[in-house]
Design brief:
Length: about 170
């Protein structure tokens, strides 16, 4: 009987791992306008040995208490498909004020998620946030994932450049 319960719980856990989180469902259809002068996009190339780049886009300026969207993208520069493993999201987002103090709290379920990352493909995630205090800020994101098989498995943490933006008062 105990074995049956363990098997059922294991199957439920596997099914739950394959379900998108409510955050992913909410932000999947949100997008930042492309070629908009009000949006800053920066990219960090990876070392030559890894076939990935990470980039981030954020508005140049926004009003205090205005919700905004930051978009982070991981690109596979190779022609090869990879299976990657990551938490419920791929990117961890960080927003800092002009003094370098982190102003956001970012938590993510550590559910293991397998995903096929196609050659020349991209994975994009969105982060929605609101800042009350006017000033200058910078945002970056770190993609944390594992790729490869067996002895060739690698854990990567790939940080984007920092995108700067200004929050102005509502006056």
């Amino acid at each position: 009987m105990k074995k049956l319960i363990i098997i059922i719980l294991a199957l439920l856990g596997l099914v739950a791992c394959g379900q998108p989180s409510p955050f992913e469902e909410q932000t999947a259809n949100l997008s930042l306008p492309k070629d908009d002068p009000a949006v800053v996009t920066t990219t960090v190339p990876t070392p030559e040995k890894e076939p990935f780049t990470a980039s981030i886009s954020a508005p140049n300026q926004l009003k205090s208490n205005e919700e905004f969207i930051v978009e982070a993208t991981l690109k596979n520069l190779s022609d090869s498909d990879f299976t990657i493993l990551h938490a419920s999201g791929l990117f961890y987002f960080s927003i800092k004020d002009s003094n370098g103090k982190r102003v956001n709290t970012f938590a993510m379920a550590m559910v293991g998620k397998h995903r096929t990352f196609q050659g020349k493909g991209m994975i994009t995630e969105h982060y929605t946030y609101k800042l009350e205090k006017p000033g200058f800020y910078e945002v970056s994101a770190t993609a944390k994932f594992t790729f490869g098989n067996g002895d060739n498995e690698k854990n990567l943490e790939l940080e984007t450049n920092k995108a700067s933006f200004e929050v102005i008062s509502l006056n």
